[in-house]
UniProtKB/TrEMBL annotation:
Localization per record: Membrane
GO MF entry, a single one: malate transmembrane transporter activity
Chain intervals with Basic and acidic residues compositional bias: 1-14, 33-42
Record bears the keyword Transmembrane helix: yes
Record GO cellular component, one term: membrane
Protein name, as recorded: C4-dicarboxylate transporter/malic acid transport protein
The entry's keywords: Membrane, Transmembrane, Transmembrane helix
Pfam families tied to this protein: SLAC1 (PF03595)
Keyword Transmembrane: yes
Top-level taxon of origin: Eukaryota
CDD domains, A to Z: TDT_Mae1_like
Amino acid sequence: MPSSVDDNRNRAVRDGSQSNDSVRDASTSGHIQDAERNDGKNANHRVGLRERIKHLTWAWFTCTMSTGGLAIVLAETPHRFEGLYTIGVIIFIFNVVLFLLLSSLMATRMIIEPQHFFKAFWHHPESFFFASFWLSIAVLIGNMQEYGVTLGGHQRTWLISTIRVLYWMYAGVSLANSIQQYWMFIHRRPAKPALMTPAWFLPGYSAMLTGTIASMIASSQPPANRMSIIVSGCAYQGFGWLISCVFIAIYVIHLMENGLPNPDLRPAMFIPVGSAAFTIIALIGQAKAIPRDYGYFASHPTAADTLQTMALFVGIFLWIFAFWLFSIALLAVLGGTLRMGFTLSWWAFVFPNVGFTVATIELGKELESEGILWVGTAMTICVVLIWLICAVACVKAVVTKRIMWPGRDEDKDM
């Protein structure tokens, strides 16, 4: 008799559990269907130009970072053909127009939606992308140097002086930006901890690129100005590299504990690659630009050769680390390719790998290795192809309402 009672009780519990599971499954299914219906309504209801401009986020400037970076890698590629300079100039001019267009649209966003615009500076997913605006300016300065002085052969005093003034202005603004962005994030009192994302690197990047720009412009500056640019560039590059080291450690731990991000966001995993790559470029370029007969180096004649050797071997030391980060990101992307939809994080396919490509080319030049230089040329071709893919996908995403649409951009939680 007790056994029969227990059986009946167990059957009732089991039936009740199955009933609850059915209700839960039906509820979940209903929520999914509701979400799909709402998403369909959201995609089909009329949204005007004003509403779309409202959702033009700071992440759009990753596009100008990458387009300007493409012009730089074309300027640096070792195996050249007639007309490549002209192609680079066209891309440079196109990037200037694109930057002005995005800046105008961002100003329009501020005017028509001021509350939404200013809230973006405190909103975690979007706020860190503000640094991409300053990084775009750094790239424009680098393009001015490459196509106006280095390749253009225009040793006009006014242009060299203009680039120097822009460098110092950028140095001040980029450091202030990196301080205030990290301070705002540290100072806030969040309801819940924010998940680590590669966008955390960008404010530090904006200061770190000061060192990279210094390495590009220093050799064309007068010795008196060159020394201050090299010293400041070294300091800024060290700051950016150490900030990146902190975040690389945090990010690797985050990946080990939580696994890979959503496939749509995996292209952003290439961002840490640039931290090591741009440091290689900065160290080698600054060492090569040292004025041997001026100031400290005039009284220490062997110092320049020593620093150039150190820069080369530290660069080799860092390259393999950049390759490791690149490989992790590449495997993650390949594993989610079939499930990957376009987001603005796709532009991370380009900009960090511009740095990786130029760093490889610089090492090849210093080691006088034709093999490494051909690897750099092959990487250049890959960067060009991936930029074309990203550009087409970006335009298509705007047309098909995947981005710049309510609830689908970095500001969707605001």
